[in-house]
Structure formats: C-alpha cells, structure tokens
Amino acid sequence: MPEPLTSAIRVRGLKKQYGSRNAVNGIDLEIGVGEVFGILGPNGAGKTTTVEILEGYRKPDSGTVEVLGLDPWGQGDALKPRIGVMLQSGGLSPGLKPLETLRLYAAFYQSPDEPKRLLDLVGLNDSAQTPIRRLSGGQYQRLSLALALIGRPELLFLDEPTAGMDPRARATTWEIIQALSEQGVTIVLTTHNLAEAETLCGRIAIIDKGSVVAEGSPGELTGAVIRSELVFTSTPGLDTETLQRSLGVRAEMCRETTSGTYVVEAPTSTELVRAVVNFLHEVNAPLFSLATGQATLEDVFLQLTEETP
User: Fold this and answer.
1) Can you tell me whether residue 146 is helix, strand or coil?
2) Cα separation, 191 vs 210, whole angstroms
C-alpha cells in the first residue's frame, strides 16, 4: 500500500519559453496536502503558465513537476479526475441552466457530488433554472466554483474565485474555501485581491518575470519588508516642517494626508512617540489618536514587482 502524500505539488526547476521570452524561468514550489497556497504576480509574470502546467494543459520545457504524485502532462488522464479547476470566465454554454450544467458535468465522474447540494452550497438555488446567459458576473463565478467541486477534487485550482461577487457572496466563498482546506482539500489560489490572499492563504509565492521572488506566510512576507509608520490625528493644518525638524526625519517622511491626520514614515520607537507628544505639547495641539503601522501584503507585492528601468 503506497504511503500517503505529504506534498500535493512538487516543482523543481520549471521552465517554459515562448519564442525568445522566458515565461517561467526555473521555478521551485512545494505545496502541502490540505494547504491553501496563493500564487500572486502582475500580469505577464508567469502565473497562468505555471498553473496551466500544474493542471496538465501545458507541457514544460524542462524541470520536474509532480501533482498528487503524478506527472500532469504524461499522466493527465489519471490526474484530471482528481482535480477541480475554477476558471475566471468563459467556457459554459449560455443556453444551459445551472442545475442541468452541474448534472452534465457530474456524468463525467465515477462518484460525483450532488448537484443540488452544490447549488445550495454556493447560494444558487433560486437561479437553478435561469439560463447561464442571464446570470450576473458573481452568479457565474459561484456556478464555476460549484462545477469545480462536482468531482469531489483532492486538489482545487481557483482563478480569481470572487471576482464580481458582492460582499455576502464573497464571504460565503471564503468560508467554503476554508472548510475545504479543513477537510484536506489542497487549494491553489491565484488572485489580484491581496486581502483575499492574506485572509485565505497559509503560504504565498509572489512571481515576477517568470521567477519566484518571495515565498512564505503572509506574516513572514510582510515582516520582511520595512514600512513602519506612525499615524496620529490632531488639529488640522499643523506645520509639518516644524514637526519634521522636531522628529529629526526627512521632510518627505512627514506629511498631513487628510485634514488632521498625520503620517510619519519612520521606524516606530518609544523615542519617536515621545517626540510627537512633545511637539504637540509645544504647539498646544491635542492628540486625538495615535497608531503604528506595518507593511501590508500590498506593500510587499508592489515593492517586489516594481518595474526597474
């Protein structure tokens, strides 16, 4: 009896070239069973090519790829029944209805999930008999998620899963993703919604120009980028030049962003807080609030994928 998998995906030295362009340039990845793993990157970074190779839709030029212990290109027939793929848009017949579409897809699997149960799960019961062409963007996305789940996948690929959804549908989808992970389903998530990635993903890889430029948990990634700042609110219109000199920071690091809200971009410390309080005391201005900030995932993403001349 084979030992259970500990890694759902293993990638070593993955390369893919289109003409003279290196779409994927030596990527290494390892994704554990039951993990929610995010792949982020700007348009053209190599995300789509990488995911399509993992799904078995593109053949790599070099490197090794194992998905659920199989070669996705050479053993695609064995792999595809075990994975679910949620595409961002397109591919569904506009004249069909959600329930009949799910029943059609269910016929491709030996042990499919129940179509009506999935419609209820994604909140589409009321639209079960609505032609797909009449669904809103968010409803279409929810149907795409249900179709990705119809085969009870061990591994789920989600591309912009909540695009076009209203806040309630988005929250429901996040709950579904978290529940699937708790059941042992591995999820690979590509999204431009960095808050979504930060909320759902245990680990994230940021890809730029065909290479992984950073990888780790959201906390590890944000902790690796220094963007400390101190934000306080007081009387509008304070002299920021005098404030800057009092704090001993450069002029561009100290500004009033909105009326009465001041940002000091500097490593936070007890001394900096004390200097702000002393300044306000000297100019006889009140301190309404004070908070320190740290790097967000968006800060990390922008810093690592910034275009260089």
Assistant:
1) helix
2) 17
Whether 170 is in a domain gets the answer yes
What span, in angstroms and rounded, lies between the C-alpha atoms of 26 and 42? 18
Which pLDDT tens digit goes with each residue over 149-194?
999 999 999 999 998 899 999 999 999 999 999 999 999 999 999 9
Identify the pLDDT of residue 95. Answer: 93
* Whole-angstrom distance, CA of residue 226 vs CA of residue 268: 11
d(CA 89, CA 133): 12
Distance CA 7, CA 37 (A): 12
pLDDT at residue 98 in the model: 97
Per the CB < 8 A criterion, the answer to whether 97 and 130 are in contact is yes
Distance CA 260, CA 153 (A): 53
176/19 Cα distance (integer angstroms): 40
Cα gap 140→120, rounded to integer Å: 14
User: Which is nearest to 298 in space by CA: 37, 36, 42?
Assistant: 42
- Beta carbons within 8 Å of 34's beta carbon, 6+ residues apart: 8, 181, 182, 184, 185, 186
Structural domain span for residue 238: 229-293
Q: Read off the pLDDT of each residue in 67-96 and give the average, rounded to a whole number.
A: 91
Domain containing 28 — which CATH number?
Answer: 3.40.50.300
Is the per-residue pLDDT at 306 higher than 80?
no
pLDDT score, position 309: 34
